[in-house]
């Protein structure tokens, strides 16, 4: 090898090492983080910002935030302004930490499914104001809805899977007096469920439905109300009208192309039209038609056909694959967030009424009358790239999340002589989806804070490996300029949130009183604990109080069915007791004064300890017993 | 004199009424404060039973919690069943109340004095019984208890320290009403002393002038 050639090799070697060195240069990662901090406050402002979110130990947050947990199937309770995670409420997924999904009652509620996909929590409302009674939430995956009672923050009812409804995304979006909550098809299918038709026949055989779920005003019990048969479009996000528009419900659509082509991505198929629709439903009107019996029964659901009986369902063109549709606090406007168009479109409810009256329709699309765009549009605001959702404050401003741009746009609310215009924009980290403001979807938003629910956190936290948390950022909107002042990293994956003033949730209990516990299997004294054999069934009435489980020995035979009723007889707040059986898939946490029941087959012979899993007292370690399963002879 | 006679009658009847009413209020209570009970816990003693203090809603816990904590150190459960005094005290108080009414009708020199003596003996006895009960509960701890502590005397009045707790004990309306009733009976006795000194006839039944 000659020296020239050698020089080339050495040179290449140096270059390669330099390349590796450059790409590994810690300063480039550092620089990236520096860019995150661009727009971050100066040192002097930091102390001021920190004080705004500092809630000292012993003090309480001013607001509750209820975040959906996405495919975690749960709801997270956060406090504002501290951004502290206070509690997880399991809804559609088992949750060993509270024993949810292991006892007979919650197991039955879950219906054999171990996951759900919570998206849009909705607080119950009276006259468009949060009344602090219930929180409803949807399951996008299996077409279910659930109710959480805000007296004890526990899931009380799971309704569904709802017939004919696949991919319950545009949900729950309840009406302004909690008469109904809604669900709508995201993934159209041939109905009823179980029917098979190939995607070749998508346009003809696939259907969407909008489902109204009635809510009992006394106890919140949900029941299937009725459904509206819709074209096979994808129904995305919704909002109910309020005040003047209180009888209406709005939902955005994409894939009004109404196609699903084998081998061709939907992202292409569904993005061909310049405009898709916002669907406006006169739910009061449909309700009266349903009462008249103007329905067909499909899979047990009363289904109303808006083509056969026109006058209640209308389409409004909106650019382009709009995501969120949001009704203004005064109920006079509804806003389409463009997603693939850099604008939000403001539509007038009054103009919509007039256009409907005058039958000012451009066409009928798959049987649904399409109102002329020009007849209802009020303003288009160029907010930026990828607008998804808009919320409101108390001073006449709106805040729109910009997914593509990773920013929040603040714009001035127009009308009545006021100009519609952009005011401010702040970058967020990163890719904001939903956005929530304090009581921002009620008739009287409270201002103060905007909560950005960001889809990606991209290492703006201590490294935790490839599975990264979501990012939630708190934006101070009290001044003329928005300021990001705090960040939290919620578990996957909050989609939407409700923020309610803490004092609106009254009468939260900490203990179930004896009078309230109506369970016939409750026992209140360890002396009443007993084991009773009935044939091949062993029934156990068990008590838990610091620091013993009684009975502390349960004997049975291999193959016996064991039924355990466990009462936590404590009357002291936070004296939870756990109940876990080693080697058996039984795990529960009865709250003070609660009775839970468990059933299982003692199919593994041996001696299996059971114990209190939830640390309770100085003698918690001693709180144990034995399940003795005698082998078959 | 007629008015004095009526006053003496009413005073003794009022004393009887107060004694009965006193059973509707706690006689004594104890609060226990510690770091892990930020609002404190408490219990109270009626003439008829042990129970929660009146302001239980503001507390972290009541008698049940006191008993739960006590079981760790092997103290007997504080309940109507384990303390005979709650069966004795209401009966005794009823006897005093009846005695007051009887004395109101018997206008003899010794009548009100007898009630004073009866009441004094009973309250001394009651106080002694309460002290003894507290003493015996604090001293007869189950030797097999999980947590062993030296026998102790719970505080009857004022502030005391016990393990991680600061205890505050005080008397309450049940006791106050009994004290007032006692003072009324003493007043009746004083009336008797003065009237009998002035002459027996003023306290005899009105002669119908």
From TrEMBL, chain A:
GO terms for cellular component: cell envelope. This is Sec-dependent nitrous-oxide reductase. Pfam families: nos_propeller (PF18764). Keywords: Copper, Metal-binding, Oxidoreductase. Its EC number is 1.7.2.4. It is found in: Cell envelope. It comes from Desulfomonile tiedjei. It comes from the Bacteria. Its main location: other. One of its GO terms (molecular function) is metal ion binding. The keyword Ribosomal protein does not apply. It is an enzyme of class 1 (oxidoreductase).
Automatic annotation (TrEMBL), chain B:
It comes from the Bacteria. The chain crosses the membrane at residues 85-106, 113-135, 171-191. Keywords: Membrane, Transmembrane, Transmembrane helix. This is DUF1461 domain-containing protein. It comes from Desulfomonile tiedjei.
């Amino acid at each position: 090898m000659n020296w020239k050639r050698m020089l080339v090799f050495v040179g290449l070697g140096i270059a390669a090492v330099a390349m590796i060195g450059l790409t590994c240069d810690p300063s480039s990662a550092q620089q990236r983080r520096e860019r995150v901090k661009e727009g971050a406050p100066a040192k002097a402002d930091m102390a001021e910002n920190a004080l705004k979110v500092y809630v000292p130990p012993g003090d309480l947050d001013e607001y509750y935030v209820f975040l959906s947990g996405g495919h975690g199937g749960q709801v997270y309770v956060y406090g504002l302004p501290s951004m502290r995670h206070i509690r997880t409420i399991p809804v559609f997924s088992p949750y060993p930490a509270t024993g949810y999904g292991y006892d007979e009652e919650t197991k039955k509620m879950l219906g054999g499914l171990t996951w759900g996909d919570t998206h849009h929590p909705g607080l119950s409302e009276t006259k468009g104001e949060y009344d602090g009674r219930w929180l409803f939430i949807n399951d996008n995956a299996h077409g279910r809805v659930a109710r959480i009672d805000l007296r004890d923050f526990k899931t009380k009812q799971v309704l569904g899977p709802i017939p004919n409804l696949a991919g319950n995304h545009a949900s729950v979006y309840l009406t302004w007096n909690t008469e109904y909550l809604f669900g709508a098809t995201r993934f159209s299918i041939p109905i009823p469920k179980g029917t098979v038709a190939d995607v070749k026949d998508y346009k003809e055989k696939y259907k969407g439905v909008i489902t109204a779920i009635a809510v009992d005003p006394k106890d919140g019990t949900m029941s299937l109300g009725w459904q509206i048969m819709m074209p096979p479009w994808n129904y995305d996000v919704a909002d109910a009208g309020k005040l003047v528009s209180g009888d209406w419900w709005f939902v955005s659509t994409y894939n009004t192309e109404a196609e699903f082509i084998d081998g061709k991505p939907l992202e292409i198929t569904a993005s061909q039209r310049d405009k898709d629709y916002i669907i406006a439903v006169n739910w009061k009107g449909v309700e009266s038609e349903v009462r008249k019996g103007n329905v067909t029964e499909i899979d047990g659901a009363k289904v109303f056909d808006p083509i056969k009986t026109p006058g209640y369902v209308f389409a409004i063109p909106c650019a382009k694959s709009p995501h969120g549709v949001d009704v203004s606090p005064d109920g006079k406007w509804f806003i389409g967030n463009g997603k693939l168009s850099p604008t939000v479109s403001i539509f007038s409810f009054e103009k919509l009424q007039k256009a409907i009256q005058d039958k000012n329709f451009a066409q009928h699309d798959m049987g649904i009358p399409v109102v002329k765009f020009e007849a209802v549009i009020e303003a288009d605001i160029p907010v930026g790239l990828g607008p998804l959702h808009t919320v409101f404050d108390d001073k006449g401003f709106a805040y729109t999340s910009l997914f593509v741009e990773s920013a929040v746009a603040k714009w001035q609310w127009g009308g009545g002589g006021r100009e519609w215009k952009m005011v401010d924009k702040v970058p967020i980290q990163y890719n904001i989806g939903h956005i929530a403001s304090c009581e921002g979807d009620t008739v009287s938003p409270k201002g103060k804070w905007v909560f950005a629910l960001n889809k990606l956190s991209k290492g703006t936290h201590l490294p935790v490996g490839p599975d990264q948390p979501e990012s939630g950022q708190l934006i101070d909107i009290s001044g003329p300029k928005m300021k990001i002042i705090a960040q939290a990293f919620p578990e996957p994956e909050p989609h939407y949130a409700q923020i309610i003033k803490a004092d609106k949730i009254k009468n939260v209990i900490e203990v179930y009183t004896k009078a309230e516990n109506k369970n016939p299997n409750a026992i209140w004294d360890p002396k009443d604990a007993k084991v009773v054999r009935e044939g091949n069934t062993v029934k156990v009435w068990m008590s838990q109080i610091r620091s013993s489980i009684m009975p502390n020995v349960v004997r049975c035979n291999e193959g016996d069915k064991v039924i355990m009723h466990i009462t936590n007889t404590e009357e002291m707040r936070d004296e939870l007791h756990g109940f876990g059986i080693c080697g058996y898939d039984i795990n529960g946490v009865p709250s003070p004064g609660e009775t839970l029941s468990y059933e299982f087959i003692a199919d593994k012979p041996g001696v299996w300890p059971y114990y209190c899993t939830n640390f309770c007292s100085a003698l918690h370690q001693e709180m144990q017993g034995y399940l003795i399963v005698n082998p078959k002879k | 004199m007629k008015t004095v006679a009526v006053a003496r009658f009413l005073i003794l009847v009022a004393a009887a009424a107060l004694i009965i009413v006193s059973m509707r209020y706690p006689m004594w209570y104890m609060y226990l404060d510690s770091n892990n009970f930020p609002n404190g816990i408490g219990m109270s003693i009626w003439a008829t039973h042990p129970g929660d203090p009146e302001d239980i809603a503001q507390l972290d816990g009541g008698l049940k919690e006191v008993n739960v904590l006590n079981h760790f150190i092997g103290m007997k459960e504080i309940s109507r069943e384990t303390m005979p005094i709650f069966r004795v005290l209401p009966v005794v108080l009823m006897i005093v109340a009846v005695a007051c009414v009887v004395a109101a009708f018997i206008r003899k020199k010794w009548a009100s004095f007898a009630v004073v003596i009866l009441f004094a003996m009973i309250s001394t006895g009651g106080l002694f019984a309460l002290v003894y009960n507290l003493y015996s509960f604090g001293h007869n701890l189950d030797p097999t208890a999980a947590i062993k502590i030296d026998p102790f005397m719970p505080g009857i009045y004022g502030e005391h320290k016990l393990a991680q707790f600061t205890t505050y004990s005080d008397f309450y309306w049940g006791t106050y009403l009994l004290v007032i009733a006692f003072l009324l009976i003493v007043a009746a006795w004083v009336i008797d002393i003065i009237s009998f000194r002035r002459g027996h006839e003023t306290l005899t039944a009105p002669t119908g002038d």
